[in-house]
Amino acid sequence: MRAVGAGAVGVVLLAVVPLALSSYQLGLLTKMLIFALFAMSLNLILGYAGLPSLGHAAYFGVGAYTVGLLAVKVVDNFWLDFGAGLLAAGVTSALFGLLALRARGAYLLMITLALAQVLWGIAFGWRWLTGGDDGLPGVPRPGAGLPWSLGGGLAFYYFVLLVFLGLTLALWVVVRSPFGRALVGIRESERRMEVLGYDTWRYKYVAFVLAGVVAGASGNLFVYYNGFVSPAYLSIVFSAMALIMVILGGAGTLLGPALGGAVIVLLENVISAHTERWLTVLGLIYVLVTLFAPAGIMGFVRARLRGRLA
Amino acid sequence: MSALSVETLSHDFGGLRALDTVGFNVAEGERLVILGPNGAGKTTLFNLITGLLRPTAGRITLFDRDITRLAPHRRARLGLGRTFQVTTLFPRLTVLDSVLLAVQGADRARFTLHRPRSAFPRLFARAERLLEAWSLVERRDVPTRELSYGEQRQLELVLALAAGPRVLLLDEPTAGLSPAETTAVARMIGRFPRDVTILLIEHDMDVALELAERLIVLHDGRIVASGLRDEIKRDPRVAEIYLGIDEA
Amino acid sequence: MTFWAIQTLNGVSFGMLLFLLAAGLSLIFGLMKILNLAHGSYYLLGAYVALSVTAATGSFLVAAAAGTAAVVGLGIVMERVFLRRLPHDELPQALLTFGFLLIVGDVSLAIWGGTPQTLPKPALFEASLRFGPLVFPSYRLFVIGVGAVVGLALWLLQERTRLGAMLRAAIDDADIARATGINVSLLSTGVFAFGAGLAALGGIIGGPLLGVYPGADFEILLLAFVVVIVGGLGSLKGAFVGGLLVGLLDNFGKALFPQLALFTIFAPMAIILAVRPSGLFGAR
């Protein structure tokens, strides 16, 4: 009950605080929500099912590029473009899942990385389609096909918040369902689950596709937010950033990764303003978190709470 | 119709023949113990029966149904349960959560995504009954990695039972236990429902002879002796195998 | 005809470079179950250090030694000081190495700048050899030679020496190996350092062919992964065969179908994954 109360407070804050923020701060908060969603999508397969993926940017990028390309080159209709983005991300994860999920552990890491890199190669190499390394600019805010324009910062923020809350709720339901509990069982001991009658591959595959679709949604939101997308959002570094967001926040907890995502976005914002060495800092975060805080922020908080209750 | 039937089962690991034309039947409700020194092929046999390995040759049938090519989870759904020699639990999950998962595995709701698990009280009811029946109620909120080794071995048995199997394969359930714990586990197995068929791999001769109705002795991948308890007790070859290994 | 001969040569020499990296990766994983993502860093750093030392001394040999030494040192530090603290935790270990990949890559950018550079070839191999109508750069033959020698040496080491036997024992079961007196701890550090050295060597002899530039660490890491996926993780034979296969495919792919981007290596990788997920020579 305490968790639900905290959740309600959080929602109210997210709804009300933006009214007092500058447009720059509002933009940052919007970005934090988008990346929080991205991190939570990876958490479903990494934190809950225990599947390490170094290629999650693939679905984010596919969503972003699909929406961007359609909106700029074909037809700027929100429902069509957003829907196509989700579909493309879903199809990609369905295909990649078939290839990757027969593997585990280190193999899975390598395969997911390689698969995402193929997409990166396409985005980078097919200049005629994607603009190559220069990226795809000029993506408008969603408006066409909707009864009101989402161009303004505040209106767009509430749109993002709505999608974020909706998908977080969906993830919450899935995670508490028998399916979600089975994912955790698979993480803890896949062999035990198999002999208990679970078709573990099917669970992993469905989780993989769901994670891909939610990642695609976050990519959709991002390209609308940023107005621009480039191969960087399909890169290993970006996939790795999602990974550290999950672990920093707390893998296997629902909102930990959202927190991790917000923290990384903030850190990047602050640090990049003062130095070019953001990647070195990110690498250091990796080293420090894996060595000293493997359960992440949520793990730390829970240990403190347990200490106080004991 | 026998509960479980194994015919001319063989398995090779590369150039090594781990099992050589093993064949036997188990009647429903029977308690069959499989004896043999280390490396005799006992766990390989279990791995083949439960589907974690594909045999090089031979056939396995469960209640007259050919399961030789079926995936492990399908065999489980047909009523085959198993415990492992190396404890295979869910380290970070509580005892209750673990039993719930075991119960869920046999339930139609196992793949439901859109409703919380709490919407299925029958899972909780069944889990509670199991916890009570096997005296685990006090430990229900303890993560399984914090249980004592003896408690873990007991939970391993309860999980296998929770899915409601018709044939249970127990792989050295008393491995690594103290004499007191061994007795407790042996008594526990003795309390299992009579209509469940049990195959038991045991290294401990005393436990084996106590629980068995019939025994099979494996050595170097082959069956070297097979019979009722008293026959095996008196069989000089069996003693030789065990004594021979002890002296080595 | 000349086209095919030259492309084959290029593919084989590139394949040898990939073999050096995949072999190190496989060795480290085989013994310690660590997926060393910093392997790309070893490649890059070896090349950059060699670059600076060549500029300072003019000697390829000294530069090669310095580059290898620097990377081996880094490898030892990574293994002893950092990775040791996370025993048997596969994902955290891999992530730790990834942190190093990021750090080394970015620090290299800061030190050596973003302009792509090339390592000068050793004077001995600057000439080209003529075989009738075919003109082969002798340097590429040198690379193939190095790869073959290393491959042979590794095979002999693994199969014929006591060290190899200890290694195989430790890979099989570390606890029992330790019980028989094998110093698994020293072996681990040694293997890690050796793998790092191989990667550095790859960077150094690859430098004149492929250039040295930011991002080369990621590129070579990806290719090494594809090699290991195709050949099988933990197998020396797999690293060799996989390396040659991927090297040839990548080379021919870029020459014949440049528009297909990474598909030329993706397709065989996907086939292997579908048909034999543990790789051609991997453990099933």
In percent, how much strand structure appears in the residues of chain C?
under 5%
The portion of residues assigned to helices of chain B is 25-40%
Low-confidence residue ranges of chain C: none
Give the averaged pLDDT of chain C, no decimals.
Answer: 87
Which pair of chains has the greatest number of interface residues, and how are they split between the two chains?
A: A-C, 41 and 42 residues
Described by the principal axes of the CA atoms, the overall outline of chain B is globular
Indicate the CATH topology of chain B. Answer: Rossmann fold
The CATH architecture assignment of chain B turns out to be: 3-Layer(aba) Sandwich
Main sheet characteristics of chain B: 6 strands, mixed
Subunit arrangement of the protein: heterotrimer
User: If helices are DSSP runs of H or I spanning 4 or more residues, what is the number of helices of chain C?
Assistant: 11
Distance between the first and last residues' Cα of chain C: 40 Å
Distance between the termini of chain B: 42 Å
**Approximately what portion of the residues of chain B adopt beta-strand conformation?**
15-25%
Q: Largest sheet of chain C, described in full?
A: 2 strands, antiparallel
How much helix is in the residues of chain C?
Answer: over 70%
Q: Based on helices, strands and strand pairing, what is the structural class of chain C?
A: mainly alpha
Query: Total strand count of chain B, please?
Result: 10
Q: Widest sheet of chain C: strand order?
A: 1-2
Question: Which CATH top level class of chain B fits?
Answer: Alpha Beta
Question: What gross morphology of chain C would you assign?
Answer: globular
